[in-house]
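Protein modeling request. Please complete all fields; requests missing the sequence field cannot be processed.
Requester role: graduate student
Desired output: 3D structure, token encoding
Chains: 1
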Amino acid sequence: MYLTQLINSAMTIDSDIQKQILTQCKFLASGGKYSQLKSETDIDNDLFNYHLQFLVKKGFLDKNDQLYTLTEKGKSSVTNIDEEIKTITPAYKVSVYMCPIIDNQVLLYKRLKHPQYSYTGLISGKIRYGEPILETAQREFTEETGLTAKFKIIGNLRQIRKNSQGQVIEDGVFYICYTNKIAGTLVPKGPEGEYFWTNLDQVSQLKKIFKPSLEIVITEVQNRISGNVSWDSKFIYELQPEPEDY
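Delivered output (246 residues):
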């Protein structure tokens, strides 16, 4: 029932301007002022303000101390808005997790967009319609990090995520793409996150990580690196993490 309500609420956002405003707010940790949001557009002031206030009225944004911030409803909606083409995609997603490892170091990212702003996990990307899985991994990896790599699929996860009220707000399958063949110079920060290398043994000690998916993938990779499990043996998990604050 809640999923139906969520999809219906997202589909009320039929204006490109509203999608653009919500997408901007997605990347602001503590919200943004009117002038900050408006500066990213060439839209007439009256028209921009109309759509901004519409989003407040419909409960997608809160206004407090001159700052516009995403509400729970807003965060649930932006997770289904494609940042590149500003379209609302189906709630069920098919994506890739990229797991690049060199000398026992894994490349992770700290998320700089809502929902789950500042959480750390594997670099991910959505598979485009008709796009092969490994092409998605290569494309997204280069777009986000500036690096190039050749990946292989080692498993997949299905994740059903819930907010702190226990309501499902995200559901999807992630193909796990591994590589130890990487070239180029890392771009440490981009619009979506900060990218950094860390030792495999220290991943579980990081703050605000995506659980349990990150820990599961790291464990599976370590088992293969150590020779305890064959690289040809693919893993499959269906995960329902504990409810989280989005």
